[in-house]
Amino acid sequence: MFLKSNTPISGEGRLECRVMRREERGRMRGRDFKVYHRRRLIKKRRFHWGHQLSKDKIGFAVNTPTPCSCYMCGNPRKYFGELTIQERKQNEKDSVPDT
């Protein structure tokens, strides 16, 4: 289900959304598509990093989902040498003998 907002990004008040029709989804690419996803992320990340964010911090949270790159927030592959999901699936397929 896709939602479409009718209010501007910087506008006050609640963010009203409506369900988009299938034909609208196929046509919407480019700037409209980017604006739609930015509004969606603003709505989703109002409460992020464990507390309510102010307007200037919401923009930062939309563009940067992780606040830092420490071992807790960063890529587990870099810090712990973990494999990606695709690599784990491939290893699992390779380890199962063909019958």
Describe the structure.
This protein has helices spanning 22-27, 31-44, 55-63, 76-80, 85-95; strands at residues 3-5, 17-19, 47-48, 51-52. By secondary structure, the protein is mostly helical. The chain has two domains: 1-65, no CATH class; 68-99, no CATH class. A two-stranded antiparallel sheet has the order 1-2. Strands 3-4 form a two-stranded antiparallel sheet. A hairpin with a 2-residue loop joins strand 3 (47-48) and strand 4 (51-52). The mean pLDDT is 77.
How is the topology of this model organized?
Blueprint: E1 3-5, E2 17-19, H1 22-27, H2 31-44, E3 47-48, E4 51-52, H3 55-63, H4 76-80, H5 85-95
The radius of gyration is 20 Å
Order of helices and strands: EEHHEEHHH
Q: Please give the number of β-strands.
A: 4
Main β sheet profile: 2 strands, antiparallel
Q: What class do helices, strands and sheet pairing give?
A: mainly alpha
Roughly what fraction of the amino acids lie in strands? 5-15%
Kindly give the count of domains: 2
Overall geometry comes to flat
**Overall mean pLDDT:** 77
Summed up, the helix count is 5
Distance between the termini: 41 Å
Largest sheet, order of strands side by side? 1-2
Q: Indicate the percent of residues in helices.
A: 40-55%
Q: What are the low-pLDDT stretches, counting only 5+ consecutive residues below 50?
A: none
